[in-house]
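Recap from last week: sequence in, structure out.
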Amino acid sequence: MEDCNGHDQDAPLPVGQRYEHGRIVPHLTVEQRVARGKAARREVPREAHSSFSPSSGRHDPVDLLERQATSRLPELVPIRYGRMLISPFTFYRGAALVMASDLAAGPRSGITTQLGGDAHLMNFGAFGSPERQLVFGINDFDETLPGPWEWDVKRLAASFAIAGRDDGYSTKERRTVLMATVGAYRRTMREFAAVNNLTVWYAHLDIDQAYLELQGQLDHASRKRAQASIAKARARDSTQAYNKLTHVVDGERRIISDPPLIQPVEELVDGTQLDEVIAWIRDMLGGYRRTLQSDRRELLEDFRFVDLARKVVGVGSVGTRAWIVLLLGRDQNDPLFLQVKEAQASVLEEFLEPSRHSSAGARVVHGQHLMQETSDIFLGHQRVLAPDGVERDFYVRQLRDWKGSALVESMTPPTMALYGRLCGWTLARAHARSGDRVAIASYLGSGDTFDRAITQFSESYADQNERDYGALVRAEREGRITAQRGL
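Predicted structure tokens:
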């Protein structure tokens, strides 16, 4: 039996060896793993991560974005630019490729883990577990790939520096937030390095419990906002989407048109083409079912296809092909909304090794299963020949399943510091599940040297991000790009 990397998992491995990110590596003792981390620290001191200076051959950020646009739907690319031009922070959200290029030119610890690849603070949030608990975790894996663990930490920390500037925080306030975020990552990794494997695997962050522990540190307004966010997340499910996104047409529910953000399939194609697209999505869903766990495949079989629409999502993802599919179960009051999202090559693959997975969709699903404590029960993938004659990769999940995100713009500095600790803990847990947590903890050490280095890096990178944002502003003013705002 081969895994998605093409390795024969039934073939016996030599004594003392194991699989790690598609490679056969030796089983090391704890002492050897500690030594590995200390050796990496000697090779690349923690202080080496503190600086960011653009290289002389640094790519033009607008060039990189334009290059990404060539694989996307051209009519949607102006929406992406419009969203990125709202602020330096929204620019950063869409500029994962730009930062990947910058990180590739910097120091590397040499210790690999599964990266989220785009671990900014808005890609963390709430979602529902199969046990119907509201949990907190990373919720975007489009760019996931094995790589240097510190790349995710830098992407996360810089996002807090940039968001803090957007919110008008002082330098001192931003420093407090950054030290809290990176410090939480370091301490959590050291805690996970000291416990057994199953303890790490079962670790989770229940939002209700976290709120109880943190509410004493929140002021009254922040507590009210947190309670409202938790309640809103629990209300975001297929039923809520069904009531908001559909209406009755000739006795049957249909997805409401809201162009260009939501467009039912019949607005995009007609006649024979319409039949072909619907047949394609049915075939795609049929193949995707085979990637699900058997009991979940049986559950999905109880739903029937009703309608299909294209939906614009996110910031960095805008322009990739994304569909929402309406399914109904026992009756008209039993909806299931699935999101079918195109998976392209990770932005990291240009600077690291290419994915060893059979498809980009398989890469995304593997990374999500590995880094999340629990994943959507309908998470799966499929490679298909699309109606335009191009073979494309997709992954599928529920459109909404108790999903919620932080209201960053309304956070006070103390609240953002608390949120940073949650994100730092969560990222450490994800990395501890997929990488050598003992070596990483050994590299980090017990003091705050690494925390201070990343804090300094984040402020320097926030400066660069502002310059890059300004480059995109100029590109629009000079007519190099076209942006569609307000969408």
